[in-house]
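Running log. JK asked me to keep both predictions on one page so they can be read side by side. First protein, sequence followed by its tokens:
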Amino acid sequence: MKLYADTPVRRLRQVLGDLLLVAWVVAWVWVGVTVHDVVLGLAVPGEQLDEAGTSLAGWLTEASTGVDDLPVVDDAVAAPFLGASSAAGQVAAAGRAQVEAVETMALWLAVAVVLVPVLLALVVHLPPRLRFVRRATATARALRHGTDPSLFALRALAHQPLRAIRRVSPDPVAAWRAGDPDVVEALAALELEGSGVRPRRQRS
């Protein structure tokens, strides 16, 4: 698989583009983590409410048990303690529910903050990069297998800009049909360069 072009300038642009994409993703992940931590700060009152309610409910339950065990005290005296303990338990449950709601909101908000810009960047950056990789890989493989330069020249006639082709020859189609070696070589080099592959004669 060929990920980058052979020509230095184009390869540098591709490497910088990939590095910028990675930096973009890392930056937004950091933003997402920061947003998650900030939103989680809203759960502190709920945690304190849960802790206080649980502690109070436990203390009231112990008090009702102690009062109930007294031999000279009627069992009805412990009822208010049990009622208060139940109310404290409800307060603790409300605190836990608040914490869970804040945690859920923090998670999905962080996911949204990261996904939207990252997906936009991937949609913009990946399709042309994948097209280049497929084209460059296929072209480099064909070149290694000794494909006739005429095939690359034909592809140049079909894919390269007309202005670039006319710089090779005033009538490039006729020259290609006649098998003009200079024109065929120039057209093939044009196609290889467009695919990000350096012709073999330029390799050292």
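And the second, directly underneath as requested:
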Amino acid sequence: MAPSGLTAVRARLEAAAARSGRDPAAVTLVAVTKGRSPDEIMRVYDEGHRVFGENRPEELAAKAPQLPGDISWHMVGTVQSRKAALAAPHTTLLHSLDRERLARRWADLGGSPALVQVNIAEEPQKHGVAPDGVDALVSRSIELGLVIRGLMVIPPQPVAAEDSRVWFDALRDLRDGLRAAHPGIEALSMGMTDDYEVAVEAGASLIRVGRAIFEQGPRAT
């Protein structure tokens, strides 16, 4: 079987970190497995990767038992409260906490630490809490017993990778503003196949890359 695009993505991650004076080890690469078969995932696993992200709770519940137990699964897609129980037993980090109802359900399930998803551009078709509602959701989630590690964003689709920088900078600034009241808020999940290098330069601690790993597809430049 041909190698995946993992090596190339890692190299670009390291180069982006070097350009911005960052340690590449401070950035976790989440290989996103939406629509990928266990065999495809094992190809990347066999290249030494251990952190994978799934978009759909039902896919995670189906795939995780078929794959090695040392995989760290991140839930990166939208989670309906009624499907949270499918994802919670397998999830190491939830990236998409976006409302109190889900926070309550995730806490009831004894769920993993989470990131609050921010609709940074306030696009009506996207999930996520508006920037001015982040503090309240973080506070309420902590009251419910959840560990909130940071923030996640899916910015407007870029024409060129550089288009995303303004949104990544805005998320970083939002995170920095929360630190006084919530010192545990550190992580920034931002950047996908088309803009992950810019995300690394902007301070991402997690990047979510699927197509460039599994399909070695082209990226916007």
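Observation for JK regarding the second prediction: The radius of gyration is 17 Å.
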